């Protein structure tokens, strides 16, 4: 601290002036520092107020969370206690910041405004008197000796000025010394008060949390136990999740949308519940999705959970349920009561059957609970069931269940899973021709349909050609190809009970990476191809043993009577499957655009027309009366494969090409395993594909194998003839039926602008004409019915199922033509 001596101030010595300058600089710097400190204190107080505001909001959030957790006493009580403690700490912060405002801000501001202001005023007075003194001294020194009056005046002014200077300088020095002393006390007093405020704040906080500490320790112990309980619950939930996932996987494998069971003894009184579409009774007949349930012998629905349920049927004893097949939507059924009816739609056929069964069981349960006469109940139940049976479901010509299972499991190796060896497999990969257990079938599904197409042996329908395909291959055949190098590479084949990751890794290595397939050498592949070219065909220097060709077209007009006479003169094996009169009636009914337009325009005529259609198609059994028109141009006989020569370049695609002609499914599978492209094109043989060669080979199973392995059913050769053209030319009725079912285009034209239908007409193949025209008419009917038409007439589907069954089990009945040389 700088002080000024009073004696020196009277002398007004240079030492005094230096001291004054030092003090003035000190005071100026002090004022700057104090101003800065006050501003910082103001900023701290403002930030503290904002902190307190945010802290109060946080405390309110904790209280709201405690209210939301009212069902959990531990959480609610703990959060309320924490909120109270935090609120108390916020109050302590408020006190601290108030003390900072009083002790630092206010006190230092007073010091600056009062004491420093007085110092500045004294300094101004001192500077003024100092200037006057200097002027008086100068005037006194300049007074002339001979001018006594000037000397006297200068002397008197100097005396008065010195007297005033002494008084002012003494006051100024006093003010300086007082300021220097007060500066120390004011600053220390202010900061000490602020520090005591902090001390009080932290003492109060410590006391507060000391009281809270036992509760915090207790909660810490409970939290440890809670963490252990959560870990156990997590394990239980993971186990339940895995169980539900496996259950859902089983439902996926069985192609079931959901598992619904009728439970009349349910605790909540709800026997069955789920989503259904309901048709409104308004003029627009809109469909809305609602949550339906059968409870307390009533059928009710609701839109939202909190909505009061709307009762559809108050007493199920007074209603019946039936299928609805006369609406544009699928899977519909109707619940009819004496006063009203309700049309509903399920998401699948299985769900529809489940709901209908549940309603029927509820009707029976309602009678039992009311104690009504059992005979009356039986009559009502039989009437309800009879209404369902009378609706008539499509008769199944495909094999399902134990029949398919027994046939497939008799093939070598099929009694155990192809990949892990589990006994009694119930699933199959239809493009590979193998049987699988449920775990391996799930892995095969994950590979994608371009690698494996999985189907159930007990739950799915099996078409005859697909079942025959399964019987042509088998696990032993496939494993001989796909596991040829397994032992050489030292790979372990998984067993039943191994973990899913191990089995999945093996299956991917086997079918995706094809790691165990034995790649043949060029010489081996060439030898294989030459053997396939000659296998069972005995091809030599002539073409006499090529696949059967159609007879040459007849260029002259042939009346129907001639055709009938010719048909009567044929051998029994050459007779057609349909009688002329029935097919004349059939074609005259369908093959007119006006009739189709009438079907589309009539409001209620669609179902009646379909019934007339069914009556006519149900009569068809034999041959057709072909149009009495002369062919536009003759159809060239189908040219068989060329005389076998040494192939210029061998490839898996070429092996697949000749294996398809030789009807050798194992060799075809081997070629695909070696990387053959299913739609490979032989540029040296009119750009024919393996599927076209399968047609020429005459095997429907070979065609089915290629189609299941993604062969293009419409890929043409160099003459723009697809597989359907070739099958028609060769008179392979079963193959024509197969291609039409697999989406072959019958509108495609070859280089001569001939469609398969025109070729079949020119070659007088009645059965193929029948199939092509029925397929075309069915397509036209579907287009006439609009975008909401059904997937196809049931009688049309029945006819195609009949053809597939005959082609697979009694192909002799479809052999309408023999080769030229026979």
TrEMBL record:
<dbReference type="Pfam" id="PF01412">
    <property type="entry name" value="ArfGap"/>
</dbReference>
<keyword id="KW-0862">Zinc</keyword>
<dbReference type="InterPro" id="IPR045258">
    <property type="entry name" value="ACAP1/2/3-like"/>
</dbReference>
<dbReference type="GO" id="GO:0005096">
    <property type="term" value="F:GTPase activator activity"/>
</dbReference>
<keyword id="KW-0479">Metal-binding</keyword>
<keyword id="KW-0472">Membrane</keyword>
<feature type="repeat" description="ANK">
    <location>
        <begin position="719"/>
        <end position="751"/>
    </location>
</feature>
<dbReference type="GO" id="GO:0005886">
    <property type="term" value="C:plasma membrane"/>
</dbReference>
<dbReference type="GO" id="GO:0008270">
    <property type="term" value="F:zinc ion binding"/>
</dbReference>
<feature type="domain" description="PH">
    <location>
        <begin position="269"/>
        <end position="364"/>
    </location>
</feature>
<dbReference type="Pfam" id="PF12796">
    <property type="entry name" value="Ank_2"/>
</dbReference>
<feature type="domain" description="Arf-GAP">
    <location>
        <begin position="402"/>
        <end position="524"/>
    </location>
</feature>
<keyword id="KW-0967">Endosome</keyword>
<dbReference type="InterPro" id="IPR027267">
    <property type="entry name" value="AH/BAR_dom_sf"/>
</dbReference>
<dbReference type="GO" id="GO:0010008">
    <property type="term" value="C:endosome membrane"/>
</dbReference>
<dbReference type="InterPro" id="IPR036770">
    <property type="entry name" value="Ankyrin_rpt-contain_sf"/>
</dbReference>
<keyword id="KW-0175">Coiled coil</keyword>
<dbReference type="InterPro" id="IPR037278">
    <property type="entry name" value="ARFGAP/RecO"/>
</dbReference>
<keyword id="KW-0343">GTPase activation</keyword>
<keyword id="KW-1003">Cell membrane</keyword>
<dbReference type="InterPro" id="IPR002110">
    <property type="entry name" value="Ankyrin_rpt"/>
</dbReference>
<dbReference type="Pfam" id="PF16746">
    <property type="entry name" value="BAR_3"/>
</dbReference>
<dbReference type="InterPro" id="IPR038508">
    <property type="entry name" value="ArfGAP_dom_sf"/>
</dbReference>
<feature type="region of interest" description="Disordered">
    <location>
        <begin position="374"/>
        <end position="399"/>
    </location>
</feature>
<dbReference type="InterPro" id="IPR001164">
    <property type="entry name" value="ArfGAP_dom"/>
</dbReference>
<dbReference type="InterPro" id="IPR011993">
    <property type="entry name" value="PH-like_dom_sf"/>
</dbReference>
<keyword id="KW-0040">ANK repeat</keyword>
<feature type="repeat" description="ANK">
    <location>
        <begin position="686"/>
        <end position="718"/>
    </location>
</feature>
<dbReference type="Pfam" id="PF00169">
    <property type="entry name" value="PH"/>
</dbReference>
<keyword id="KW-0863">Zinc-finger</keyword>
<keyword id="KW-0677">Repeat</keyword>
<dbReference type="InterPro" id="IPR004148">
    <property type="entry name" value="BAR_dom"/>
</dbReference>
<dbReference type="InterPro" id="IPR001849">
    <property type="entry name" value="PH_domain"/>
</dbReference>
<feature type="compositionally biased region" description="Low complexity">
    <location>
        <begin position="380"/>
        <end position="391"/>
    </location>
</feature>
<comment type="function">
    <text>GTPase-activating protein for the ADP ribosylation factor family.</text>
</comment>
<protein>
    <recommendedName>
        <fullName>Arf-GAP with coiled-coil, ANK repeat and PH domain-containing protein</fullName>
    </recommendedName>
</protein>
